[in-house]
């Protein structure tokens, strides 16, 4: 998501940086490009107009024209305005005591309410709460079965009835929650159009019956302006407390994320960034603004990494890298952790210096599966010592993984280069590491090319060999 918008923002700032000192006309011309980019991203027209006017006023007021680095100052101004547009930060769930705290989810058909209800239940359970999921979507035949399946996966109870009275189901679920010590009740209601008076009336009756402490509107980011328009109507009828944007990992243009808060004046609480039940994130406007402008999101990257690695595991891995004892088993574990963190492309977008170059770049996640298949086809000795993999072993591994011997040779070569690079990394200072990482954006990760890092820490033996090669060429 936001790839096209990120690329256009980068083009605008690149054009400014190439001018040295710029004029007021240059600033206004750049903002015309920004306006076009935002409109193409399906951002609300009024939001775009106000945003661009605000940026122009602040840019001229900040004396961008007289600045020695006008493009950098423009990036800061645009970043601040994007943060303001989507902010403030308000991802906190307000619990009541005594419970249960009642959270109701509403939204259009197919926006992802049922999956979001399960993700939200997992989120509050991780905070030490005891949630109860309520199957109050009685219009869609498979909704109850779907929620029960998701509840079983999370080991979270699901309350349901064989009834067509959504108000009665919601009311009875509160009694069940009190009797069974469940302190958070999450109501999964039926999808409905905001123009359907009868269904909206039912939703209002549910509200009156259970008096939810918080009402979250679930919006599909893929629907663009439709999500914003429906959010406005739902807010007028229900007085929602926040918005949850789903499918932000899809091929969406991003207009909903940039428009919904400005139109409804309600905060974006959470964003769904994947199909799995752990892919619900608290929304931080400043982090999202950084991603949109191609500046990465280190904080979110670190948080995701902390979920996958303990400090002890990280120290053990660092020690292995320093000794050059990194094996294919370690490599496979790293690859699997990367997939759990959202995939290689998603991770690279969070790395400053690389994220801006990722716009429009196609990283084939299936290539990771092929690599895993080749590693799984190796025996224990081969994983520990890749030097054992000769021609006959390459053929066997290729047959077992459905690849070619050439692919296996390429993987072994890449692995050995990566191991050497990691060993060299462990001896670098912080600045040297950053320079090396910044060059990763120029490489073709899965095209067989490896980054040519300028690594100074070479062994004495390698230096001697290099001198001999030079002498022989003469």
Describe the structure.
There is one protein chain. The chain has 21 helices and 8 strands. The chain has helices spanning 3-17, 24-40, 45-61, 70-86, 113-126, 143-154, 166-179, 197-210, 225-238, 255-264, 285-292, 298-308, 311-323, 328-340, 344-349, 366-376, 380-384, 391-401, 405-426, 430-438, 460-473; strands at 101-107, 131-136, 158-159, 184-189, 214-220, 242-246, 268-272, 280-282. An 8-stranded mixed β-sheet has the order 3-2-4-1-5-6-7-8, with helices on both faces. β5, α9 (225-238) and β6 (242-246) form a beta-alpha-beta unit. It is flat. The termini are far apart.
Write a compact overview of the structure shown.
The chain has 474 residues and is an alpha/beta fold.
Key descriptive features of the protein:
single chain, 474 residues, alpha/beta, eight-stranded mixed β-sheet, flat
Uncertain segments of ≥5 residues (pLDDT<50)?
A: 436-460
Count of alpha and pi helical runs: 21
What is the CA-based Rg, rounded?
A: 27 Å
Distance between the termini: 54 Å
Q: Indicate the proportion of strand residues.
A: 5-15%
Topology:
Blueprint: H1 3-17, H2 24-40, H3 45-61, H4 70-86, E1 101-107, H5 113-126, E2 131-136, H6 143-154, E3 158-159, H7 166-179, E4 184-189, H8 197-210, E5 214-220, H9 225-238, E6 242-246, H10 255-264, E7 268-272, E8 280-282, H11 285-292, H12 298-308, H13 311-323, H14 328-340, H15 344-349, H16 366-376, H17 380-384, H18 391-401, H19 405-426, H20 430-438, H21 460-473
Helix pairs in contact: 1-2, 1-4, 2-3, 3-4, 4-11, 5-6, 7-8, 9-10, 13-19, 16-18, 18-19
């Amino acid at each position: 998501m936001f790839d096209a918008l990120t690329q256009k923002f980068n083009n605008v700032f690149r054009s400014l940086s190439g001018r040295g000192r710029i004029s007021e006309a240059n600033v206004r011309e750049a903002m015309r490009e920004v306006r076009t980019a935002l409109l193409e991203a399906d951002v609300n027209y009024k939001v775009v107009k106000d945003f661009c006017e605000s940026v122009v006023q602040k840019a001229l007021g900040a004396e961008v024209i007289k600045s020695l680095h006008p493009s950098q100052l423009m990036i800061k101004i645009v970043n601040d305005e994007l943060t303001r547009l989507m902010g403030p930060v308000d991802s906190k769930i307000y619990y009541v005591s005594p419970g249960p705290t009642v959270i109701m989810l509403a939204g259009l058909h197919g926006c992802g309410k049922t999956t979001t209800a399960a993700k939200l239940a997992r989120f509050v359970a991780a905070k030490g709460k005891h949630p109860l999921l309520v199957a109050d979507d009685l219009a869609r035949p498979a909704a109850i079965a779907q929620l029960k399946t998701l509840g079983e996966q999370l080991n979270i109870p699901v309350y349901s009835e064989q009834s067509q009275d959504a108000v009665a189901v919601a009311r009875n679920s509160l009694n069940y929650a009190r009797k069974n010590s469940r302190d958070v009740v999450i109501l999964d209601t039926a999808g409905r159009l905001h123009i359907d008076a009868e269904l909206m009336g039912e939703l209002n009756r549910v509200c009156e019956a259970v008096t939810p402490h918080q009402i979250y509107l679930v919006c599909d980011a893929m629907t663009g302006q439709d999500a914003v328009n429906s959010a406005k109507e739902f807010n007028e009828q229900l007085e929602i407390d926040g918005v949850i944007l789903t499918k932000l990992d899809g091929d969406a243009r991003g207009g909903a994320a940039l428009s919904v808060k400005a139109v409804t004046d309600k905060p974006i609480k959470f964003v769904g960034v994947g199909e799995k039940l752990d892919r619900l994130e608290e929304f931080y406007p400043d982090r999202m603004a950084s991603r949109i402008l191609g500046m990465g999101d280190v904080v979110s990257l670190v948080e995701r990494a902390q979920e996958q690695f303990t400090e002890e595991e990280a120290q053990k891995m660092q020690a292995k890298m320093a000794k050059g004892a990194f094996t294919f088993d370690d490599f496979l574990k790293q690859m699997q952790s990367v997939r759990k963190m959202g995939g290689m492309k998603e991770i690279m977008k969070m790395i400053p210096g690389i994220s801006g170059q990722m716009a429009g770049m196609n990283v084939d996640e299936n290539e990771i599966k092929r690599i895993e298949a080749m590693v799984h086809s190796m025996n224990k000795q081969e994983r520990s010592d890749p030097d054992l993999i000769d021609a006959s072993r390459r053929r066997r591994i290729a047959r077992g993984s459905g690849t070619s011997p050439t692919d296996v040779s390429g993987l072994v070569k890449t692995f050995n280069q990566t191991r050497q690079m990691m060993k060299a990394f462990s001896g670098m200072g912080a600045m040297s590491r950053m320079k090396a990482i910044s060059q990763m954006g120029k490489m073709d990760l899965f095209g067989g090319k490896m980054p040519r890092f300028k690594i100074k820490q070479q062994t004495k033996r390698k230096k001697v060999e290099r001198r001999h090669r030079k002498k022989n060429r003469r």
